[in-house]
Amino acid sequence: MKTVHIKNDAGLLALALRLVVGWTYFSAFWRRTILADKLDPEVAGYIGEKFNAFLPNALGIKPIIQYLVENPDVLWINMVIFTIVEGIVGLFILFGLFTRIMSIGVFSLAMGILLGSGWIGTTCLDEWQIGVLGIATGFVLFLTGSGKYSVDNYVMKHHFAFTKKKWFSWLGSGILPIKERIFPKVVLIGSLFIFGMTLMTNQVFHGGLWGTLHNKSVKPKLEITSGEIQNNILSFDVFRTEGVDVYGAWVIGIHLYDSQKNSILEYTQEDLSALNKMSIANYYVAKIKPGKHSLVVPLGAKAKLNLEHDVLSNLPNGIYTLKITDISGAYWVHQIEK
């Protein structure tokens, strides 16, 4: 019996990888535009608010995220562009069209996910895993290009003129024009870089290499700053930096104590749910606002609260303690000098 030898095709071997990562990115476009309207700033589930949740612990790109969430119009434009890019990259990767340049898109989008939201994940390291695997996948697809079942292969097989150009090997598929003796070094250096990025972010975001493991997505954390008492107004900034990203912290109590721990001012759960929205000056797209039974503080939201009360008018100078209590029982304190 005659044995048939089939030449291995690296692009063909990466077919499953290409299809899965292609759908992963295209499905983001599909979800936001076809299955639901997630690009409307006035609708619940707006992608800009999700992006805002990345802000507190983003790595390296925090100033960019902060600028965008402080400027809603610019944020919306960028969210639309980002969604379109994800759709194009995903679709082209699915069909294997200009695979190598699209793999750079996969790499870049995954890097953005990793640096922006690699710290998020309630039950496991969700966003971190998506980011590092996306980076590795983008690199592999750049090396392999697309194989037998792809548009790149079809146009090469039918000898389209542009496939003869050197640039097509860099942007599409086929044999990479890298010298044989250099190619293994390119693979090694690229792989070690990605592995180093994986280890570094795993440690920074989660303490995954040494020290104490931590997950900033499990428990809510509020940061209180800029507290002051002027005339009859207590004002302070509150910023939620940790906790589950899909729902807010529920503040059920705000108290002000003097140095002897006597209660000066108290806002109960009912008071906070009925709080005048004019008392809340939000900084970002994600907004702190009164809910049905509490004051709701989404992840990444920051606002200045101005609480007006007559009892504050004649307070003597001294040190006062502000305490904010979450429905979970967690609380945070901040000292104010009057």
TrEMBL record:
Keyword Transmembrane helix in record: yes
rRNA processing in keyword set: no
Domain of life, source organism: Bacteria
Keywords annotated in UniProt: Membrane, Transmembrane, Transmembrane helix
Transmembrane segments annotated in the record for this chain: 12-30, 75-97, 104-122, 128-147, 186-205
Alphabetical list of Pfam families matching this protein: DoxA, DoxD
Thiosulphate:quinone oxidoreductase small subunit DoxA domain ranges (all copies): 205-334
InterPro entries recorded: DoxA, DoxD, ThioSO4-Q_OxRdtase_DoxA/D
Domain TQO small subunit DoxD: 15-177
The protein, known as: TQO small subunit DoxD
The species this protein was found in: Algibacter miyuki
